[in-house]
Amino acid sequence: MKQTLIILILFFVSSSIQASFTFNDNCKQAYSEMMCLRFDGAGARMQTEKKINPDNQVPCIIENYIDFLKVLIGEEEKDYNFLKSKKEQRLQKLAAEGKDSPWHLYSQSLIYLQSGVARIKFGEYVSAGLDINRAYRLLIENQRKFPDFVMNKAGLGILHSLIGTVPVKYKWAVNSLQFEGTIPEGNAEIAGAYRQLSSDPQLSFLLPETVFLLTFVTLNLSADIPAALNLVEKFNTSTLKSIVNESPLLIYSFANIYSRAGENDKVIQLITENPRTPDMYHFHYLNYMLGVAKLNRLDKDACYPLLSFLGSFKGKNYIRSAYMHLAWYYLIQNEPQQYNIYIERIKLRGNDQVDNDREALAFATKNSKPDMHLLKARLLFDGGYYARARQELDAFKPTDIKTGLENIYRLGRIYHNWGKTDEAISCYLEAIKKGENLPYYFAANSSLQLGIIYEKRNDFVQAKKYYLKVLDMNFDEYQFSITNKAQAGLNRIKGK
Predict the structure, then answer these.
(1) What CATH number does the domain containing 389 carry?
(2) Local structure of 123: helix, strand or coil
(3) What are phi and psi of 456, to 5 degrees?
(4) pLDDT of 241-289, one tens digit each?
């Protein structure tokens, strides 16, 4: 989820009739090129725009957006330093003119928010908090001055939603910044922005990122996978389908939804049928996604996209996870020497900022090979191949407490996603009973899934019980994402 949180948070730019913020055809085209990661083309257009219309502030917004996306996607320190070096200069330019425009404060909030998210990426958390707080204050003030400005809804919507997921033990930090917000509130704001943009042909070019925001909140915070799938299918049948196919950002977003929904074949199809062209900035993470999806299907060629990702990506996130998936690939292919090579590489490169990499490092440190049936069951489940996953578990015989616990947990996950909810509940309860005092994530995620089941049944008392139980457990694996989802669940059922 974290990757997804980092990529999604800044998709807000728009047009205005004011001279200081004019989204003319040239700027709209540059914006579309930017969304497709054609940064050179977009940048060249903005250089032309500055010569022809030197008073137009839009190039400042788009240029910062390009620099920001490079930081998020490429994770290179030189790009991060360049973004920081331009911050004050761009803020001064945006603050100098157009004070009667709703874009005057809004554009400055974008610079602060992009800076804050980039700082999080590079571990500067205190400075990030100050930047994001400044962005939030500017959005609140802009909402007061221009209550009908559509992009206020999008910006505040995503911040209100994310604020609602902060675990209780970190609420002091949010309270010190005087942040407020809930997931339903944020979701409603983003949905309102989408409806308003849909009814205005002059702003229709902004729909892609608004749908991006809607799908993120629906999938990751509202935990409503069917609703997220409906949004994707709706968007794929609209006049904007061509933009989806050309934008690696939207391909990433939709592939993530298909992956969470167990539509693994669609993940592979979406990524492979929409190859990146040479004029696009490289989004190497898509190769990671493709490699994982192919491994989930136990494809013989799953290693190639993972090797491409590791050979090309210069950042640090998901490196260890990619090595772990390669090790699993070679274990399944009965190449133990290659398996050992990639297990050792997990320890040598990457970091532990995201849950996937922390799991990989813990896996490598324990230095014990997974059972083949359990491993295949996990991968096949992640791909949505539930019958095949169940067959692997039927052939498995637990050898110790952990493998016995994992067997019960994975059976529960298979039943759950297969639609056999009563059987899933029984497995989840057994996993909690046997594993709540162990450091593994199986019991915690079982409790989270029980909360989701009871929430969908409108049994909010039971849902609250199991969401709170997650927050009371001590476990190491996937701790960030599981506790965040539990907190999001508590936020959704608040007052029900």
Answers:
(1) 1.25.40.10
(2) coil
(3) -65, -25
(4) 777 778 898 899 899 999 999 999 999 999 999 878 899 999 999 999 9
Span 113-155, pLDDT tens digits: 899 889 988 888 888 888 988 999 999 999 999 998 888 888 8
Question: Which of helix, strand or coil describes residue 137?
Answer: helix
CB neighbours of residue 163 within 10 Å: 21
Q: How far is residue 151's CA from residue 103's CA, in Å, rounded to a whole number?
A: 9
Euclidean distance between CA atoms 107 and 91, whole angstroms:
9
Is-contact 290 271, C-beta < 8 A? yes
Q: What's the longest Cα–Cα distance across the chain? A: 73
Cα–Cα distances (Å) from 25 to 31, 104, 240, in that order, read 10, 21, 17
Last residue of a domain, one of 257, 273, 289: 273
Among 273, 300, 335, give the residue marking a domain's end: 273
Owning domain of residue 484: 382-496
Please list the helix, strand and coil fractions of the chain in percent, rounded to the nearest 5, in that order: 75, 0, 25
The residue among 373, 453, 382, 455 whose CA lies nearest residue 420 is 453
The span from the CA of 271 to the CA of 294, in Å, is 11
For residues 431 and 414, is the Cβ–Cβ distance under 8 A? no
pTM: 0.86
Query: Assign residue 75 a region: left if phi > 0, alpha if psi is -120 to 50, beta otherwise?
Result: left
Contact 118, 315 (CB under 8 A): no
Name the one residue in this structure whose structure tokens are 């616990």.
Answer: 405
